[in-house]
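Researcher: We're teaching a course module on how sequence relates to structure. For the next exercise, students receive a sequence and then see the predicted structure as tokens, so they can try to spot secondary structure elements on their own. Here is the exercise chain.
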Amino acid sequence: MTPPSLKAGLLWRGNRRTGEGSERGDTMLAPLFDALAELNVATERVVHQDDLVDDVTAQLLRLDGVLIWVNPIQDGADRRHLDTLLRDVSARGVWVSAHPDVIMKMGTKEVLFNTRSLGWGTDTDLYKSPKDLAR
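Model: And here is the predicted structure for the students to work with:
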């Protein structure tokens, strides 16, 4: 078998120190890890934690690209630190699957609506205004 020509990270939010959240990420994303392995792409688990941005950045800079799997408002967190980090590594040559500038243009929740028919999607409605919701 030829050595992998690409290295990709799969990033989700968790606790880098304890690994909390890693088991869930490993389980949820196992099919994606398997599919990338079949394509001979080396993968790394990248657990994002807001107060360890420098560690996450260093890990990402060793990769060719990163697939982002982060709930933007999980556990009261937001995307401020993550978005800054992703913009930084992207500007330094790492391909970012969900670039913050693209997400901002699309609208985070609108992405869920637009991808509802894909494998991770679910029955999702989109209301563009409070008036639409009331109807």
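Model: If you want an answer key for the exercise: DSSP finds six helices and four strands in the chain. Strands lie at 6-13, 41-48, 65-68, 95-96.
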